[in-house]
Design a protein that fits this description.
154 residues; mainly alpha; 2 domains; transmembrane helix
Amino acid sequence: MMSIILVIWGFLLISLMAIGGYFMFRKFLKRLPKEDGKSIMDWEEHYLEETRHKWKDEEKEFLEELVSPVPELFRDVARQRIASKIGELSINKQENIIQRSTIIEGYIIATPKRDHKFLRKKLKEKSIDTTPYEPLFQQSKDNYDFDWREKYQK
């Protein structure tokens, strides 16, 4: 009986360490500098700092509503990633303040396709038409990583 408990405990301990190591390794990879000398996380922080003054309270609340389905443990990371993509779009569009349409576009681009159903549901609750965003919904997140700017311009 005791040996079974030890085996189960050992398996549980190794499994939890492997899961934690996986997430730590992913964060480490995001911190590695790319060709331009900045990492993914450096660029996220850059876009957040550059656009911090552009956010109005209503837009911050709207973003909070959109990220509310994300489990609380991961919500801060998701919020930062999405807000940085929104900031990048805002800079590219040369907006003076963050627009609701930019928030929706940034959310679509920054999140995996499987999370789009939550966005669609939230937009439907708010009576916001998703028709202008359908081309973005149709693309997968993988396509955004390399050439999302070119596709967005079209």
